[in-house]
User: Which sequence fits this backbone?
């Protein structure tokens, strides 16, 4: 599968017209404790897994993907550096955007990003709710946005944060799978895709919160 390359932008459009918007809002429920290992079944650090199998993968250097047949991969690329800023997998009217960040050696950055997202969503008059997700607290968000002819539309998504050794992955579920009343079968393939991600952060010094970019795969334009 050859990933589709998308020029650098603050938004990634899906085939059904949905757009990626990175804002949220809500308080984290008290029942979410630090004692749960939300990464027990993935995503994984490169040092934690053996990739010596025949499973087809796409290696973006700092992030390794395991797509399934029919998944359309879109790469958001910085036009000057030709570095990949984000990856979005699109399938059956739904999608998942993945972004990789540098994180400190101790946990807690996910909580900070949620708090920042809460404030951002409030500024956009959006609504959010923190619920129990497959990777711990997930943010269900609804953001107003204008339609093509000026009508009021709403952008619905679910956001996951997962912390690893000095890295953090943010997954934003989009489209039909992100709707509050959608059956879990809609989101299940994207949950598995996110679990199978492998991060190869390296030892380079990075400021926590900085985006960790990826390399274009071999043979990509």
Assistant:
């Amino acid at each position: 599968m050859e990933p589709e390359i998308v020029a650098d932008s603050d938004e990634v459009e899906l085939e059904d017209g949905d757009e990626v918007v990175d804002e949220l809002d809500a308080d984290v429920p008290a029942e979410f404790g630090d004692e749960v290992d939300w990464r027990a079944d993935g995503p994984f650090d490169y040092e934690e897994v053996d990739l010596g199998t025949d499973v087809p993968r796409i290696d973006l250097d700092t992030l390794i993907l395991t797509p399934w047949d029919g998944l359309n991969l879109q790469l958001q690329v910085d036009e000057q550096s030709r570095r990949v800023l984000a990856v979005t997998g699109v399938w059956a009217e739904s999608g998942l955007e993945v972004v990789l960040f540098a994180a400190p050696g101790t946990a807690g950055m996910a909580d900070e990003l949620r708090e920042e997202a809460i404030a951002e969503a409030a500024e956009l008059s959006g609504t959010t709710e923190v619920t129990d997700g497959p990777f711990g607290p997930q943010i269900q968000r609804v953001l107003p946005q204008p339609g093509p002819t000026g009508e009021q539309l709403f952008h619905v998504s679910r956001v996951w944060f997962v912390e690893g050794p000095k890295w953090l992955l943010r997954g934003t579920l989009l489209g039909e799978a992100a709707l509050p009343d959608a059956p879990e079968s809609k989101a299940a393939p994207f949950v598995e895709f996110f679990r199978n991600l492998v991060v190869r952060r390296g030892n380079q010094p990075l400021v926590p919160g900085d985006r960790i970019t990826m390399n274009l795969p071999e043979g990509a334009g």
Helices lie at 109-123, 184-195. The longest strand covers residues 152-164. The two ends are 13 Å apart (CA to CA). Confidence is low (pLDDT under 50) at residues 9-33.
